[in-house]
Structure to design on (398 residues):
């Protein structure tokens, strides 16, 4: 007889050990599962104090955000205000620059008109003003005849062939314009030989002359406000300058005659 | 801050007075009444003018010849020259450009246009 355990006993033992091992595995598994669950709960669960602290922190953060937003809005409004102010300053700077240029123009015109009492110099200044400050390409400066109510050409530049060189008061566009009370008259789409602008030049009610502009320079786009100020200035100041030059010429002639007479009386011979 | 100096060369006294008054708030202006005296003044100025406004139509050698002489003179050629002209025609401008002008403005001079051209040239020359 054999002393070795029977084969079935061996299988049973192996099986029992397998069961034990399986039970140990299940236990270990359960332990790990519980540990994992605990860890998850720890992760998830926060204490009420922590919740309160987090809530407070959140609330403060929200307050900060709100404050930052309102600060941002205030800064944006301030920036807009400064930008608008800047824009206004820029506009007013340009406007002041334009005004300064306009005043410079008016001052230069006025100054030059009264810089001399000689008729040719006054006419030359007037011509410069009309070309350089008014941008006129074709114009005539008419001077009133000393004895008759007639306008005669004093200076002409690029005048149309058919434009009048001599005209009576009340006749034609220019003759009628000098009798009006307006400091200047503008005409739209006139005939080629009719003026675009007439500036009657008067000292009180006496017509001293007239400026008639027939064409402006190519680069000039119409009559501007500054041009109208210059027309107004010419109407009064050029008239005074022309009148002064005319009186000065008369006085010079009279003085020359008087000097001649004095020489004649003194020497018995007229001065050559 | 010292002002930039600008030399105005024009035979018309009205234009000289006008430009001088217009620019004097921002620039130190010197004036000459002919192309020849303008060249002499530009050579004599120390320091040299920062820009020159030169009338095209003047008695004597005229603006174009003066421009050519300025650009031929190595001590003056770097000064920006702005031609001032009553003639806005393209051929006049082409002649000015061929002679070496740096900019131009037409009469009657518009403030904004003149200041823009001057500023751009001075900025470019710095």
């Amino acid at each position: 007889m054999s002393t070795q355990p029977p084969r079935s006993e061996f299988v049973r033992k192996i099986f029992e050990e397998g069961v034990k091992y399986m039970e140990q595995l299940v236990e270990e598994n359960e332990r790990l599962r519980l540990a994992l669950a605990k860890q998850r709960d720890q992760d998830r669960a926060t204490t009420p104090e922590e919740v309160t602290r987090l809530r407070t922190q959140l609330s403060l953060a929200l307050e900060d955000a709100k404050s930052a937003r309102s600060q941002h809005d205030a800064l944006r409004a301030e920036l807009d205000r400064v930008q608008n102010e800047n824009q206004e300053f820029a506009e007013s700077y340009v406007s002041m620059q334009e005004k300064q240029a306009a005043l410079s123009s008016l001052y230069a015109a006025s100054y030059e008109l009264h810089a001399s009492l000689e008729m040719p110099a006054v006419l030359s200044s007037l011509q410069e003003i009309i070309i350089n400050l008014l941008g006129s390409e074709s114009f005539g400066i008419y001077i009133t005849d000393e004895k008759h109510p007639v306008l005669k050409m004093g200076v002409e530049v690029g005048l149309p062939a058919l434009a009048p060189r001599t005209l009576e008061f009340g006749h034609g566009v220019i003759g009628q314009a000098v009798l009006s009370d307006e400091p200047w008259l503008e005409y739209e789409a006139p005939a080629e030989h009719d003026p675009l602008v007439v500036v009657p030049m008067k000292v009180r009610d006496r017509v001293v002359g007239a400026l008639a502009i027939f064409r402006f320079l190519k680069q000039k786009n119409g009559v501007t406000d500054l041009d109208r100020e210059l027309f107004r200035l010419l109407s009064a100041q050029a008239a005074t300058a022309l009148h002064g030059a005319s009186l000065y010429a008369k006085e010079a002639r009279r003085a020359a005659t008087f000097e001649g007479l004095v020489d004649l009386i003194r020497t018995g011979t007229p001065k050559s | 801050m010292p002002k930039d100096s600008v030399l105005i060369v024009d035979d018309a006294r009205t234009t000289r007075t006008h430009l001088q008054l217009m620019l004097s708030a921002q620039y130190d202006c010197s004036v000459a009444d002919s192309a020849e005296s303008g060249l002499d003044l530009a050579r004599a100025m120390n320091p040299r003018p920062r820009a020159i406004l030169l009338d095209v139509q003047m008695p004597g050698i005229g603006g174009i010849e003066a421009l050519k002489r300025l650009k031929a003179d190595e001590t003056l050629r770097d000064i920006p020259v702005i031609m001032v002209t009553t003639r806005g025609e393209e051929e006049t401008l082409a002649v000015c450009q061929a002679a070496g002008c740096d900019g131009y403005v037409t009469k009657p001079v518009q403030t904004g246009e003149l200041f823009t051209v001057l500023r751009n040239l001075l900025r470019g020359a710095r």
